[in-house]
Amino acid sequence: MNREELVMICCSDLSGHVKGKAFPTADLEKRRSSGIGWVPTNAQITAFNNIADSPFGSLGDLLLIPDSDAEARVDFGDGSPLEHFFMGNITYTDGRPWECCLRSCLINALETLKAETGLSLFSAFEMEFQFLDDETDYGPGFGLPGFREKKMFGEVYVAAMRAAGVEPDSFLREWGEQQYEVTMHPQIGVKSADNAVMMREMARATSQRLNDPITFTPIRYPNAVGNGVHIHMSFLDDDGNPATYDPTGPGGLSKPARHFVAGLLKHLPTIIAFASPSAISYERLAPHRWSAAYNNLGYRDREASVRICPVADLPGLDVAKQFNFEFRAGDSTASPYLQLASAVLAGIDGIRNEMEPPEPTEEDLSILDEAVIAGRGFERLPSSLEQALERLENDQVVRSWFPDPFIDVYLKHKRGEMAHLENMSPDEIYKAYENAY
Question: Which domains does the chain have, with CATH numbers?
Fold first, then answer.
């Protein structure tokens, strides 16, 4: 059977899905500069493949331009077609960045951080997902039996990640039912989000080839263990030296790091609409789920929205090179580009206004009175997507970070997603997200 190799130029869209157009690989050199045609209303295709209210209608033309530094070309060695795609930027036909391009949004945020502070973001994503073969006994969380059960998947997956240019860090059997976690090594700038997209897509590609279904849904049913996305962040100065750690600072945070964290926490009740943007995300963002329920800073606290991570203080190891903080309030229904961009923009606002973070928590906030929590500078995160969207709609500071018409387009997209769910039972809603992600 004759075949001609195809390659795809992709974007990570408002639903967190990866979409794009393919063309013959023979045309790649031409496409590197000219890209491929795209349509504005494509941004309004929701997670459920319905089209939300669009301000663009049937009008407008855009380009998807590939980034040569964001290419995945993976041969699984089983005779199946290559996984070959680029992540790209969405532009107008004259090359200007499109206001609703999430990758361009992140690039702009990182450039602003660098211009105003001299700092580069060094970040890494970790993601949780679940297998759907409910009949299998996976053994205890973190156990060798569960690792052994999915060792074939893990080895194929790690090889695919590495071939795609993602440096794998760990693959483990997590605590939840059929739950596993994958992490990568940190990268500078936009490459971290590129790798997060590829890490997720290589999991799906592995799942398809091994006929072993998985889901990245935030939570499969009420009271289940949720699947989160955690982003580890630190900073490098102009010389590439660590700039996050100060042993005399609160929690070990340097001055720019603590201002950044303070801004992230202050704006988290609004930007949670970007980080955890599904109707079921808020079932996971609750006390005692090891996720995030308050906009608090925690010292080694896995229920904090931002956690100061431990380091190995052993002979020969540099504490400053290890030191980082972890943003724990996201999930895989979001685009990694928008998750990271909104966190960076919030952090920049904290640096500009020299905000100070609250004292790190080391206790269960849910047992405290609301007045005590407020007095310590924390608040409960929104408990539903609609609450989060209303807060975003009315937050003029956060709106000012994004060009028009981005926020209004995003709100329409998410409300279109919610409208699709209106006549579904709770069980049907959970299943819809499980299937979509």
Answer: 6-98 (3.10.20.70), 105-436 (3.30.590.10)
Could you tell me the sign of the dihedral formed by the alpha carbons of 172, 174, 179, 183, in that order? negative
72 within 8 A of 202, measured Cβ to Cβ: yes
Q: Which residue shows structure tokens 């009175």?
A: 369
Taken in order 3, 12, 229, 232, the sign of the CA dihedral is: positive
pLDDT tens track for 191-250 = 999 999 999 999 999 999 999 999 999 999 998 999 999 999 999 999 999 999 999 998
Q: Are 147 and 172 in contact (CB under 8 A)?
A: yes
Give 342-366 pLDDT, tens digit per residue.
999 999 999 999 999 988 887 777 7
Which among 109, 88, 68 is positioned nearest to 18, based on CA atoms? Answer: 88
The answer to whether the beta carbons of residues 16 and 334 sit under 8 Å apart is yes
Backbone angles phi, psi at 261, to 5 degrees: -60, -40
Distances (CA, A) of 256 to 119, 143, 214, 342, 366: 9, 40, 39, 17, 30
Q: Are 229 and 284 in contact (CB under 8 A)?
A: no
CA atoms of 207 and 388, how far apart (whole Å): 33
